[in-house]
Amino acid sequence: MTGLVQNAIDALALGSLYALTALGIGLIFGVMRLINFAHGDLIMIGGYALIVPSSAAAAVAFIGAWPAPAMVAAIVFIVMLFALACERLAFRPLRRANPSVLLITSFALSFFLEHLVVMIYGGRVKAVSIWPELLEALPISGVRIPYLQIVTIGVTIGLLVLLVLFLKRTPMGIQMRAASEDFSTARLLGVRGNRVIAVAFAISGLLAAVVSLLYVSQVGALTYSMGIPLVLFAFVATVVGGMGSLTGAVLGGFVVGIASVTLQVALPVAMRPDRDVFVYGLILLILLMRPSGLVKVKSIEEKV
Questions:
Q1: Phi/psi zone of residue 295: left (φ > 0), alpha (ψ -120 to 50 degrees), beta?
Q2: Rounded distance, CA 182 to CA 171, Å?
Q3: Domain-wise residue ranges, the chain
């Protein structure tokens, strides 16, 4: 029973990271019908913003040494600024282009950001330690739950509630929902497309910054490719949940996270290094049974 509870907490914590990443991808897709693979590099930028450039393996902390509130605010500001710059400089000039052009642009932007970081910081792994006290465990009835997992789950729930309130209770949120249903009609009704898309990118940047801080505090290391695994799993989660559905993106994130942890525990030791094969196999079965994802989106189905 103790092991079951421990695995459930691990699955929820991992699913929370995937859900927040998938939410950032799903938010942009809902408004622009763009799968932004550069979203993972925003997560990477949030991590590297903690340190000053150094060629040493153990980088010198900069923002990472600030008090927690100031550090979080600074990282969120920097990542949101990069997200807005990507939208303004890379995606806005190509907004009327073919969707495949936008997709290629996201890949090009991803490679550009990664190699820019390599030029500035070098390609070696950087050791970073933030909030080491969160790695300590809280014993509850024989179960040792790291404080970081509690924070991760709590932050995810809080951000999901705030985002729901924003989308349903604020004028900008309502405009974003209208744009996700039919962007052209929404613009005819007075929705300012540039502003809506910019806000969507800003929110995706905020989510990427939060994921970056939680992920770096867990792994304690930075690499220029650190965002790639997260964004790949998040993209899969978005597809499983249902493209264009924010609820589906969150649900898909938790499904992928729970499947990963469950298979890591259930598989024989010799097969655990190949866990991802079984995860993707399970995802394939889900998509065979529900090709449109767990949550169907009428506007997407009609266009298909």
A1: beta
A2: 17
A3: 2-227
In whole angstroms, what is the distance from residue 146 CA to residue 173 CA? 35
DSSP, res 49: T
For 24, the token pair is 């950032």
| Residue 41, phi then psi, degrees to nearest 5 | -75, -25
Nearest-angstrom CA–CA distance, 129 and 139: 23
3-state helix, strand, coil in the chain (%, to 5): 75, 5, 20
- Burial class, 65, CB count within 10 angstroms (exposed 0-12 / middle 13-18 / buried 19+): exposed
Residuewise pLDDT in 10s, the chain (304 residues) = 666 777 888 889 989 999 999 999 999 988 888 889 999 999 999 999 888 775 444 445 677 678 888 999 999 999 999 999 999 999 999 888 888 898 899 999 999 999 999 998 888 888 888 888 888 888 777 778 889 999 999 999 999 999 999 999 999 989 888 888 877 888 877 888 889 999 999 999 999 999 999 999 999 889 999 999 899 989 988 988 888 788 888 998 999 988 888 888 888 888 888 888 888 888 888 888 888 888 876 655 544 4
